[in-house]
Amino acid sequence: QVQLVESGGGLVQAGGSLRLSCAASARTFSTYSMGWFRQAPGKEREFVAALSWSGGSTLAHIMQDSVKGRFTISRDIAKNMLYLQMNALKPEDTAVYYCARRPAGAPPRDEYEYDYWGQGTQVTVSS
What residues form DSSP beta bridges with 95? Predict the structure, then answer.
């Protein structure tokens, strides 16, 4: 059974930082690429960031324009963990954040390419 478990969400003031974590199985990490999406109240889920990798090598970081320079996506191979470091947070970043996996080589921005999703973690940024 595939499990993706997010953690690290919370309430933070504008300008603050949070680091989201996503725990995955070793097989997921070795075979699939992964990404982060978010869904704000009343809005559709949107792409945030993704990594593409092959084996031990990271091939690409793909970021949504609105988070470039503020968010960083990374992974820890030894721990089978995916991270999203979020700095300079804004109220418009408030959303439930999800990690998800997609087959290697699949387009990173399309949510329909992702086959398994975590349960989500709430991020609330106050002004």
Answer: 123
pLDDT tens figures, 91-127: 999 999 999 999 888 889 999 999 999 999 999 999 9
**Dist. CA 87–CA 27, nearest whole Å:** 30
Amino acid at 54: S
Q: Sign of the CA dihedral 37, 39, 45, 48?
A: negative
Handedness of CA 122, 91, 88, 113 (dihedral sign): positive
Rounded Cα distance between 28 and 102, Å, is 9
Phi and psi based region of residue 28 (left: phi greater than 0; alpha: psi -120 to 50; beta: remaining): alpha
Residue whose structure tokens are 């999800």: 98
| 69 Cβ contact list (under 8 Å, min separation 6) | none
Residue with tokens 């969400």: 9
